[in-house]
Amino acid sequence: MSPPSLKTRARLSEVRYEIRGELARRARELETQGRSLIKLNIGNPGAFGFRAPEHLQRAIADHIAGTDPYTHQQGLPEAREAIAAFHKTRGTPNASPERVFIGNGVSELIDISLRALLNPGDEVLVPSPDYPLWSAATILNDGRPVFYRCDEANGFLPDPEQIESLVSPRTRAIVLINPNNPTGTNYSRELLERIVAIAAKHHLLLMCDEIYDGILYDDEVFQPLAPLAGDLPCLSFGGLSKVHRACGWRVGWAVLSGDPRAIGDLHHAMDLLGALRLCANVPGQFAIEQALHGIDTITPLCQPGGRLHETRRALIESCAASEHLQLVIPQGALYGFPAVVGDAAHGFDDHAFALEMLETEDVLLVPGTSFNVPYRNHFRVTLLPEAPVLREVFARIDRVLSRRASKVTGSRTAVA
Length: 416
Known about the structure:
Elements: H1 22-32, E1 38-39, H2 54-62, H3 77-90, E2 100-103, H4 105-117, E3 123-128, H5 133-140, E4 144-151, E5 157-158, H6 160-165, E6 171-177, H7 189-202, E7 205-209, H8 226-229, E8 234-239, E9 252-257, H9 260-276, H10 288-293, H11 299-302, H12 307-321, E10 325-326, E11 335-336, E12 339-340, H13 350-361, E13 363-364, E14 366-367, E15 379-382, H14 387-415
Helix pairs in contact: 1-13, 4-5, 4-9, 12-14
């Protein structure tokens, strides 16, 4: 007689993370069968031939002898000083090393900050579409994500009035992802100021995921949130994984700004939780100073002729050439979030489409509903492959969508 299955946490049933979920598991099965796949599900630069800049690698190598011991739970003092200095140049109020927390990627710091903030039943306002770690971490820390819409018709920008309408007595924080994943939208100063005003009116913590802050196209300008927040409690998240193409180093940081009287308890709570996990990965922290104050290696990739710019152009041109696709042009970050339109969208199911692309076209995409949206006609691709590869991917996408549209047209003709 077999033993009973161990029960797991019930709230896990509410968590979704399709970026590495069922479709990714099926992709691994196909690869073991010898299939060669184009995997566009994860913004993982190293998997597409990018390398972390040489001066960052050298900074770690030069300090490797000092990486054996644990460090302070908030991070290496010199790394925190470099982050604080960087934020001072941005205008972050009261930026200091004591207010900097270094973690094993932004992912860990999102979890720590929400665990420090939330009591059971507390609510967090999260964008829809969102990067699903935010909603998952809220749920797993006994909170409730409340989604505010970022509608495609509005360029995937949020509506401050709608955000404020969702504030309740249980609301504790507003989450912003800027530049946005999955849409690539870049938020203006005016929009951010209106959201800051909502946070001030209702005494809410602002939490801004700024991991893509240096990845911008077409002369877009990044507006950090903390300088606009002023004395309001604000957590600004950044790291080495995207701008500096060093995902595997697992180096992220959070900077806590605002009036010391308002943020003291949160600071102590995050410090305690950081101490319980001892410290973050030490070697990668030695690269932080060079990353923030050394050579700019990301801007050339985003300008005309640069690899990211040219792949983004391939995305834009491929969608424009297709009668089945519609695109809000990404202004930043590493993704496109096209919509399926016209006859191909009739009865469309994004998960079934992603599975068909995987099984018949050897392409791994992420269904749009993975990002907590109510509609089922979007999918996300990353801009990390070379431009010709992405053009080939969209030729395959158009082939599948054309077959779907032909079936709809044929059935309509038969009925007529």
